[in-house]
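PROTEIN FOLDING TASK:
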Amino acid sequence: MSKASTNGQLSAPGGAGAALLMERRRQGLSLGDVSRQLKLTVRQVEALERDDYSGFTGPVFVHGFIRNYAKRLNLDPDPLIRAADQTLHPPAPASEPEAAAASPLVVRRRTIGLVPAASAGAAVAVVVAVAVLVGNRGSSKPGPEQPVIAPVEQAARPNEYVPAAGNAVAAEPGERATLRLVFDQESWVEIKDRNGNTIFGQLNPAGSRRSVSGEPPFNVVVGNAAGVRLTYKDETVDLSAHTRADVARLTLE
């Protein structure tokens, strides 16, 4: 189990949750005490102490909650956040070539099996190439056997896709509107426009201001909502009415 001291250092390997749990108990605090002070639910506090981040929106929110929890316990949040990242982004398993290199016998067997397969694949490739050349001789139009590259590229970059003639025509752009945000505290904000495209998404430092324009309605998520002021169509939006566990979720028409 991880050990944490009041100087904020993680003195033994283990998860961030174990260090938070141990220090909370050492200070005689209950789950209810912490949930009230951090404006989190008891279940969220328990999840943090179990290193269970599946119920949180994303890594940025996890970092923020751990940082606030650590500061409440007078712990250094940085080593705890690094420990949490090991759970959020576990190391990738060894690749197949590396695993095969550890066993010469396996490599030898795979090499023997691949030689005829590679030869057969090369033969098939030659036959297909000849068939395509013969079928397309005398014609400038691409034959049906030729691969279509454009749809693959469009699928990889859906935001850049433009429907071709004959497909459904995209709706004409509507009236644009502007959201203005003032950050009294550090906050993560994500804003999606009427098409579901993310037009703004980033961590914003305390003291900064942002202005975001797009086509409404907007789906807005604001972390650490108590430290953010939002203005839409020159009217102040009350984020507290849409806030739960310090995260505001709302739709602006």
About this structure: The beta strands are 177-183, 187-192, 198-204, 209-214, 218-223, 228-232, 235-237, 243-244, 247-252.
